[in-house]
Specification:
By secondary structure, this protein is an alpha/beta fold. It is built from eight helices and eight strands, in the order E-E-E-H-E-E-E-H-E-H-E-H-H-H-H-H. Helix 3 packs across helix 4 and helix 6 runs parallel beside helix 8. The chain starts with a strand and ends with a helix.
Length: 306
Amino acid sequence: MTIKWIGSPNFDSNRKPIDRIVIHWFGAGRLTGVDAQFQKLNGTSAHYAIEDTTVHQYVKEANTAYHAGVYTMNQRSIGIEHSATPDRPASEETYKTSGALVAQIAKRYNIPLDRAHILKHSEVKATRCCGTVDIDKIIRLAKGESSDTNMTDQQAQDYVKAIQKKYSVFYKAEDVFKYIDERANEIRALQEAMGVQKKDISSLKAELITKDKAITVLEKTVEVTQNKAVADLAKMEIDCQKKIDDLKSAYAIDSENTIDKYKEEIKKLKESGTTVEVPTETALKVRFKDKTPIEKLTAMLEIIGA
């Protein structure tokens, strides 16, 4: 790694043992703007600034730079600026260069590569710095790990061993991975079950809406059918009554005609000198009451002795 010396008037030699690295971002502009800013006698500086593969140095590590906003932290730390802004994230080259520089500094001063010792500026003082810079990614790169969060099999094994050592719990690595896989499978099964349940609920809702519509249509149909049936029954009742009345009228006329005919026959018999017992008209009406035409004729023939 090539480091270009730029220099800054903003520093002092009141140093304490170095045990921290503080990460910053430019916030605006590029590396040339940082160079110009730190060369002004304005009380701000940092030890290093990185843009892609370029590294500039402003203050020697043996001196205190004014970067953290808290003097006691300045005395014990190394400050590193990174080329990044709210609209421009740090490039992969910037991350790789930073990882390499942090690894060198940590090795020189025996600084642990963890979040307790590699700090954001905002963790020292309230500020937006270091913004979009991914400090965890810098630590992974400083450790020689991949820049992404996917571990290799060996890294995973090492991670399990580290956890076991830290908590004095000694499980076989394969058991830990098996447990993780089982939990992952359970989560996937739950997600699938929830998806099916959501689908079933949606189907049930649709089915209920369809049935509700069908019931409404059926109720209207039944109401119309019932009204029509009542109307039809009323009409049938009227028609039946009319038929009954017609039959009654026909029966009365038939009865009267039969009696008149019977009278005529009696009259003829009298004129011929035949002796017959002639019932009164009232008796005839009683005798022929509620009889069919055939029954009436048969009765008449019996009376005249035919």
